[in-house]
Amino acid sequence: MLSSLTDRRHLGLHGGMINDACIDLIDSGAVDNRHKGPVGDGVSVAAEVMGTRRLYDWVDGNPAVQLVNGALSHGIEGIAQIRNFVALQSTVQMALDGSANSEMIAGRYISGPGGAPDFAFGACVATGGRSIVAMPSTAASGRISRIVQRLEAGAPTTLPAYTADIVATEFGAVELRGRSLDERAELLISIAHPDFRDGLSGGAQMS
Question: Is pTM beyond 0.70 here?
């Protein structure tokens, strides 16, 4: 996703992690952090760095990068002050009401929530903020739909339905913010894999 943004200009970077993909995004001039507001104006902000030797050498002494503690990188108060903040995340499973599970597959935990709830809620309260969840429409080589009627039994709700905004798969993007439950279901089914749409429609009446 980041590699597709190198032709943009005046983007800002504020997140949990800086990785190798961020190098080209910043060096290309796409990210200059000029319009972020009072939190991290002029610098890319993150809580940690993870990647190759090239990345660590690039970050070392780089004035364009600022590493901060989690209270600043993930704190709602700070995120809310970033103008036009966009939370870009993925998930394991999204229900037709817009709630998402990013932690469990087939009854087995694969992850914690990480910063997902922080950034999604931060985008809700930031001026001009948007939250985007981008994911493949299927898992297990196309055998399982990531868009489901309801979250897996016992699975945690990593992202509550009230944070749902924009959702994208390879079949398009839909806007759930401000939509009724029935409208959300219809929109999500439209970007599910075609092999699963009829099955999802059978249980889509939610209001």
Answer: yes
Which helix (H) or strand (E) segment is 89 a member of?
A: strand 86-89
Q: How is residue 121 written in tokens?
A: 């809620």
52: number of Cβ within 10 Å: 11
pLDDT, mean of residues 12-18: 94
Measured between alpha carbons, how far is 99 from 33 in angstroms, rounded to an integer? Answer: 31
Q: Are 46 and 17 in contact (CB under 8 A)?
A: yes
Q: Report the chain's mean pLDDT, rounded to a whole number.
A: 93
Tokens linked to 78: 């700070």
3-class secondary-structure state, position 59 = helix
Using only the alpha carbons of the chain, give its radius of gyration. Answer: 18
pLDDT over 70 percentage in the chain: 98
Sheet holding 100-101, edge to edge: 100-101, 93-95, 147-148
Q: Is 128 left (phi over 0), alpha (psi -120 to 50) or beta?
A: left
